């Protein structure tokens, strides 16, 4: 897999054309799995980890999965390339930053990725654009079955799948939906939504997982509980709550449009103007401004830029993507200048700015 | 005088082409004068004020001053028209807002204005674009002589010209220079400059006189003392200190250009982008953003807009000017929307924005 080619497209998660794509960015399911014949990664020797990596790599690349998975060995990648995979949500920050034999199998559309030697021996992930948890579940369930035919998973009749961290035991499943909720943030209703979600044991995280700030008004909502419930029950719980949040966000958008259209339009146009004109731009500010622009496009307040373009800018302005696009390693200051130049040239391409 | 025509040009004080015009906006001298045969305005009866107004109006409009002065009776003007004259610095806020017979004689270029029945019976003012105190002095001295041939000024051999407020007794002269000092503000040296000026008895005020905030980084520097010094001495004191402030501002500009060119360019371009794209804009924010743009134009960081245009936008976006231009009375919210539309259309006129 040529990593440089990744910057030519948006991957699956920012494709922007799935169901409810104006609010639901993507749906994602991951399964944590371990081999019964080896200790968990945190207790395995270097030798054992190397054996696990070799054997799983061999099996994964020969799976009957169409299109074929391509395999990347993490130790052979530069830190920018590893960061690139994190930014595309294909690997975790943990996998990028630990040491030792480890890798990821990815399908070209970036809908499937399988990490080897992360916290668990195997972390399967399926991603779908928009609100499509069922489709993601069908894919990952089939993938899991195929792998299970070739390896012995650590499994207990009593607990279910065994995992390195007790919080994943049972189904080993984390299903999550990434939402863009700018209107709930603007109308200060987002905290209320979070409290309601926490009461029903759903977790809310920022764009890049645990501990990350919700830059760009992106929120990941996922199940906390993996034990004592079937996969179907967990999926049903999330699947039922998401339409409610979508409806709250739509209500907030129509309230804003009705009661403070002028102020909203002002905010959106200022964000657009700043993105086109600034000479220095941090990643954080970019996300916040693009969030306003994304809302503006969805509400018809900006007509000369498309949602796929805005989505692409979200990911292309991340540090590793930016350096890939510029073809050079850049320090923070240089990135801020390059990011501003890139945004300005991409947004000015969109022709006359008359609206 | 057709007040609507005033919005077709910049007047003298924002013409922007006098000496040192990148920093010195204008030079202004005013003389406070009273008639010996009447009590000061604050003690005069309505009848006496009416007499003063009638008699001075008659004399001023027949002065041999070329081009002829035109006379405006304040009570006959709408509040927007009075505010328009304040914004153009042709009358004081006090004259606009008090009651009773009062007026102003103005020459078409707006270099000369003579208020009747302000705090003093007569307030003569001469304004020049750029750093031109001597020229302003020659003009106002000649004007003062012409008037003095026709009326008896209240004058004491001991004190000089007598005025309603003791702070003006003596010469009755206030000479002031309006400076644009954005780099001294950005480099946080402005307070130091002010303290030095106060030590030598010079006052610093904002754009619209006493008590007004220094919007847009405009500062008026003027003499405090009117008694015990000749006009020439007062003028010399100011004339000598201004080149130093100009030199400090130039140093601060070159420091910024050398040491933080990127951050400065960023600030300037963001201001420009916001002015072109916002949908709501207060007068205060407009001044601050235009100040950055003005600095940017002077430093060659923005090439598609000229200083006279920026100067014009400073005055055209003031509340009364804006309402004149729109041809309607507008409330605050409507003005903010109209101001943003006006700025956006004026700045977009300037062709492609490629730099």
Low-confidence stretches of chain A: 351-355
Record field, number of beta strands of chain A: 10
- Arithmetic mean pLDDT of chain A: 91
Regarding CATH, which class of the largest domain in chain A?
Answer: Alpha Beta
Summarize the structure.
Chain A is α+β, with helices and mostly antiparallel strands.
Attribute tags:
12 helices; Creatine Kinase, Chain A, domain 2; 355 residues; 10 strands; disordered C terminus; 45% helix; two-stranded antiparallel ribbon; eight-stranded antiparallel beta sheet; homodimer; alpha+beta
Give your account of this protein's structure.
- With 355 residues, chain A is of the alpha+beta class.
- Chain A has helices at 46-61, 79-87, 93-97, 133-148, 182-186, 190-199, 231-259, 261-277, 283-298, 307-316, 319-326, 332-348, and strands spanning 24-33, 70-73, 103-106, 112-116, 122-129, 155-156, 160-161, 173-180, 202-205, 218-223.
- The first copy, chain A, has two domains: 3-252, 2-Layer Sandwich (Creatine Kinase, Chain A, domain 2); 261-354, no CATH class.
- In chain A, the strands form two sheets. An eight-stranded antiparallel sheet of chain A has the order 2-3-4-5-1-8-10-9, with helices on one face. A two-stranded antiparallel sheet of chain A has the order 6-7.
- In chain A, a hairpin with a 5-residue loop joins strand 3 (103-106) and strand 4.
- Chains A and B meet through helix 8 and helix 12 of A and helix 8 and helix 12 of B.
Topology:
Two copies of one chain form a homodimer.
Chain A: E1 24-33, H1 46-61, E2 70-73, H2 79-87, H3 93-97, E3 103-106, E4 112-116, E5 122-129, H4 133-148, E6 155-156, E7 160-161, E8 173-180, H5 182-186, H6 190-199, E9 202-205, E10 218-223, H7 231-259, H8 261-277, H9 283-298, H10 307-316, H11 319-326, H12 332-348
Antiparallel strand pairs in A: 1-5, 1-8, 2-3, 3-4, 4-5, 6-7, 8-10, 9-10
Helix pairs in contact in A: 2-11, 8-9, 9-10
């Amino acid at each position: 897999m040529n990593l440089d080619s990744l910057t030519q497209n948006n991957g699956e998660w920012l494709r922007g054309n799935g169901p409810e794509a104006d609010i639901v960015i993507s749906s994602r399911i991951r399964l944590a799995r371990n081999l019964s014949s080896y200790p968990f990664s945190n207790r395995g020797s270097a030798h054992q980890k190397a054996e696990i990596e070799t054997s799983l790599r061999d099996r994964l690349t020969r799976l009957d999965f169409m299109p074929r998975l391509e395999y990347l060995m993490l130790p052979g990648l530069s830190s920018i390339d590893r960061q690139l995979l994190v930014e595309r949500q294909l690997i975790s920050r943990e996998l990028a930053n630990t040491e030792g034999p480890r890798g990821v199998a990815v399908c070209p559309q970036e809908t499937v990725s399988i990490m080897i030697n992360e916290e668990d021996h195997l972390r399967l992930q399926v991603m779908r654009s928009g609100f499509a948890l069922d489709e993601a579940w069908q894919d990952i369930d089939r993938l899991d079955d195929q792998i299970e035919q070739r390896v012995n998973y650590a499994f207990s009749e009593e607990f279910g799948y065994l995992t390195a961290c007790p919080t994943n035991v049972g189904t080993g499943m984390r299903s999550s939906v990434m939402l863009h909720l700018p209107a709930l943030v603007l109308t200060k209703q987002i905290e209320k939504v979070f409290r309601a979600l926490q009461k029903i044991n759903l977790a809310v995280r920022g764009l890049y997982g645990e501990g990350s700030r919700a830059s760009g008004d992106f929120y990941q909502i996922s199940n906390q509980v993996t034990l004592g419930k079937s996969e179907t029950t967990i999926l049903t719980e999330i699947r039922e709550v998401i339409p409610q949040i979508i409806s709250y966000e739509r209500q907030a958008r129509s309230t804003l449009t009705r009661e403070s259209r002028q102020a909203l339009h002002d905010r959106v146009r200022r964000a657009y103007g700043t993105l086109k004109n600034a000479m220095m731009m941090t990643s954080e500010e970019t996300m916040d401004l693009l969030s306003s622009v994304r809302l503006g496009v969805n509400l018809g307040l900006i007509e000369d830029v498309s949602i796929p373009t805005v989505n692409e800018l979200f990911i292309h302005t991340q540090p590793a993507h930016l350096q890939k696009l510029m073809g050079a390693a850049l320090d923070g200051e240089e990135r801020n200048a390059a990011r501003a130049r890139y945004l300005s040239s991409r947004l000015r391409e969109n022709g006359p700015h008359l609206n």
